[in-house]
Amino acid sequence: MYHTDEQAQALMAEAIDQMNQYYVDRGIFQGKFGYGTRPAVIVVDFALGWTDESYAGGTARLDSPVENTARLIAVARQKDIPIVYTTSPFRPEGADQPFKSAADESSKYREWDARAVEIDDRVAPSASDLVIEKENASAFFGTHLIGYLTQLKVDTVLITGCSTSACIRATATDAKSYRLKPVIVSDCVGDRSAAAHIFTLADIQARFADVVSLDDSLEYVESL
Q1: Is residue 198 situated within a structural domain?
Q2: What confidence tier does 1 reach under pLDDT thresholds 50, 70, 90?
Q3: Angle, to 10 degrees, between the axis of helix 63-78 and the axis of helix 214-223?
Q4: Can you give the pTM of this predicted structure?
Q5: Does residue 32 lie within any of the structural domains?
Q6: Burial of 165 (0-12, 13-18, 19+ CB in 10 A)
Q7: How far apart are alpha carbons 134 and 154 in whole angstroms?
């Protein structure tokens, strides 16, 4: 069953209230992991296929998160904090499709091409940053990310990118599984669906990660 945006938002707000009240009544979840002392910034899939509306999977909803992430990256670089980027490999005729692809064909939009998996220039990586081509939603699954972070003695990951309800959630959940402190910077993540974005942040804050504002994360980074 499909709803209008107004109906969906009302249902979502009610569901979030019910979820939070359930947790409060039982005194479960809702806590904070806090920050550690050695963070890294993970920029998940801010590639043009997601940030450029000329592609079927692209959306202008990500403009603000991209620009906010650029602010966080600038401060992180000043503190020599590791920055990791993820994108997808470009396979025009790839037979292996582990999940539904943003490259679904549509005559209305630009054909999926090598440009689609290039990192958006607004948050372009530097030569010293790690760029990972991931095959699945999580930045950790099937990649060497945890080994890289362990080598650098990282204990906290500041997670930015898209999409909140998919790759951000999967990355945060895996980060917690590896006993890292997962921190999602709410102003630096986005989704094609506003409802999915808001509900996912509320749900994952309760159980799997901390969700903080950009200002809060900048204050933390600047204090290091």
Answers
A1: yes
A2: very low
A3: 10
A4: 0.87
A5: no
A6: buried
A7: 20
